[in-house]
Structure formats: C-alpha cells, structure tokens
Amino acid sequence: MRLQQQLVLLTTLSKCLMAGVLLLALPWAIKLFALRHTEARLRNELHQVRQRIERVGVGSFLTTQDQRLHYDLLQDEFIDLRRGRRLHPGGADTIATLPRLRQGQLVDFRVLRASFVHEGQPYTLEIGKSMESVEDVYGLLRSFAAYALAFAVLTTLLLELGVINHLLRPFDLIVHRLRAVQGPTPPPQPPLSTNTWDFRYLDESIQQMLLKIRSVFEQERQFIANVSHELLTPISILQNRFENMLQAENLPEEAETQLVTSQKTLQRLTATLRTLLLISRIENAQFARPDRVDVRELLREVVEELEDRLVDRHITLTQQLEGTPALAPANRTLLFALFFNLISNAIKYNHPEGTITVRGAAQPDGSYQLRIHNTGRPIPAEQLPHLFERFRRFDDGRVEGYGLGLAVVRSVTQFHGIGIEPASDEAGTTFTLTLPPPQ
C-alpha cells in the first residue's frame, strides 16, 4: 500500500472514530443542553411572576378556592399558584419531571416548584413545561448537530486529503525522476523545490548515490574499453600465425583440426571484444547522429539481410506499419544494429515454421510505437528484468550466442532516447519500442 493511501486511510479512520465518539456523546449532551435551556426559561418566567406579584399583589392571581391553574393556548406550559404552607422551609427551588393532568390525561412536565411568603401568607408556585416540547427542541438540536458533524467531518477530510497530496507531491516527483533514469549515467537534475526538509534530504541522498553509481560505471566502462582494445592486437597476431601455420605443407591432420578449432575460438573472442567496444563507444557517446532514418526502409534492409535465415527455418515475417515512421537525429548504422539484433533473436528463438510480426502505429503524443512479436518459447517473468544485462543467457546454451545482442539493443535505444519494453507469454515474446517524434 502506498504512503499516500496509508495516510488517507489513517485520516479516514481517525475521522470515523471521532464521529463515532461524538455520535455517542452528542445525544446525551444535547438532551442535557435542552433540559438546561428549559430550566433557564422556567426560572426566567418564575422571576417575572414574582415581580408581577410584588407589583399588583397576589389577589389578582388567586380565585376563591385559593388556587389558580392556568395553561397556555397550546397546552404545553402551565402556572399553578396556591395558598398554603411552604414546602421547603429553607426557600430552595426544586426542578423535576412530574406527571400532571392535562385534558384528562397524565402528561410529563418539567416542573419548577418554588415556595415564598407574601404579606405573611405562605404560597407555592409551580411553573411547568411539557416534555413533549422539550423533546421537540431536543430532536431539532440533534438533527442540526448530526448535519453539522457530517459537514465538519467531510470538510476536514477533504482538506486533509488536499494537504496530504500537496505534501507528498515532492515524493512523487522524486519517484518520477528515478523512473526516468534509463541507464547508469543519468543527466544531473536541479535541486528539488520543496519546503519539507525530509524530501530535500532524500533528494540530495539519491543524487549523491546516482553520482557514485555514475562514477563507478564510468570506471568500469573505461576498463572494459581499454581491455578490449588491448586484447584485439594480440588476438589479431595469433590469428595471422594460425593462418600461416594452416598454409604450411605436410601439416598433420590432427594439428590442422586443432588449429581450425583454435581459430574459431579466436574469432568468437574477437566478435565479443568488438561488441564490447561497440557498447562502450555508444555509452561514451562517440557516435554522431546526423541522419534522418526512414524506419520502414531500414526494416526492409534488415529483412533482406536475414532473408536466408528466415527461409532456412521456414519462418514467415509480416510487416504492418502505419504512416511513415522516421527518427531524427539518428545514427543509421546503430539503428540497423538495433533492428538486426531484435529480428535476428526473433528468428533464433522462434519455433520452426513460426511467425514474426512487425506492427507500428503513430501515437497521440507524436511518438511512434513499434512492436516486434515472435511465436517462440515464452521467457519466464522473473527473467524479464535481466533481459538486457550483458552475458545473460536464458536458453541453457541451446542457441549459439554470447549474450550481448540485447545489451547492444539497450545501449542503442538509450543513445537515441527510444523506450523499449519486453513482454512474454504463451503466445510468444514481444518487444515494444517507442520512437520519439523526429525533430
């Protein structure tokens, strides 16, 4: 799971946990708030009634039965004033939920009960509010709180997702830079533009690592070039000596056989050294790219060169190229070696009477995609990442070769900025090349 997905998951879980806790606590808190709000209203009404009694006297409130009970128009509030002894000698008010008779039915009211003395007479005053109206207020507040909570959670979640994406953008840029590296000698990159110290430190460490890899690779490349060049001279001398010895008269047959075998060995060694020198020169950018290459024409020349091998193995090669693919600037000789190696391998590792298909089509971004498919044995998936390494062989030596053909292919594609991607399944093996737009 990606870091961004983990952070998003953590944020979502934390928000869900917070929402769950609030949903459990909110009903109790809102109910308590509604009750406290109702009690405050009752106390305010009690204060207003006491003030009126002080101004106009208690007589205007009482009937001849020394009691007055009054409901409001909606029957959800009442005031009950009666003459009698004080219920609480200390004068403390009480609030409780009590049943009261309303229109012949017992209904729960939140009742504020107070006792007082007016003109030497004790009185008891009750002010009540129907719990149904309290529940209505409670339900309204609960709905409002639920909507507000959902809005707050979604808003903060979206805000945090945006912040996470913004903070991780330098990390995605670092990954993009690493994926763009096509070889051990990538061009230097400008410093990463970010305010996050951790990402700057990571970018600097990666750049230092790439510089070390580049330095080591250049030393290795120079060593291979020097060794290959130095070995070619004594090998050429040995070849000349073997040729002179083969021209000698009265040469025993056994000695002649050994000389021919040694000569073949030297020829293979010479071919290997020349291939290594070619790879080294390509990687050192010692080739110019002055040409504009017609890919269709170049493929025709490669197929003509390999025509005899196609006939010998009864392999059918078909081309389906759309448009007029071209590559510029380019080196025609190196591109010939690129396609020659790919099609040669397609013949070499194909089944007898198999097929090779070359398809090409222009892409919306201006590039040209070329696929070379053969119907040979599939390459195991675990070996595909190592396909372009030098001296790698996956055929158990059943096919003649030195394991350098695809290394040349990789070097030529990197030199020209061509993307290459191998794929293999039961239907065969396909090399997909992405040619950049000609300049």
UniProtKB/TrEMBL annotation:
Its EC number is 2.7.13.3. CDD domains: HATPase (cd00075), HisKA (cd00082). It comes from the Bacteria. One of its GO terms (cellular component) is plasma membrane. The chain crosses the membrane at residues 7-30. It catalyses: ATP + protein L-histidine = ADP + protein N-phospho-L-histidine. SUPFAM superfamilies: ATPase domain of HSP90 chaperone/DNA topoisomerase II/histidine kinase, Homodimeric domain of signal transducing histidine kinase. GO terms for molecular function: phosphoprotein phosphatase activity; phosphorelay sensor kinase activity. Pfam families: HATPase_c, HisKA. Residues 226-439 form the Histidine kinase domain. InterPro entries: BphY/WalK/GraS-like, HATPase_C_sf, HATPase_dom, His_kinase_dom, HisK_dim/P_dom, HisK_dim/P_sf, Sig_transdc_His_kin-like_C. This is histidine kinase. It comes from Hymenobacter gummosus.
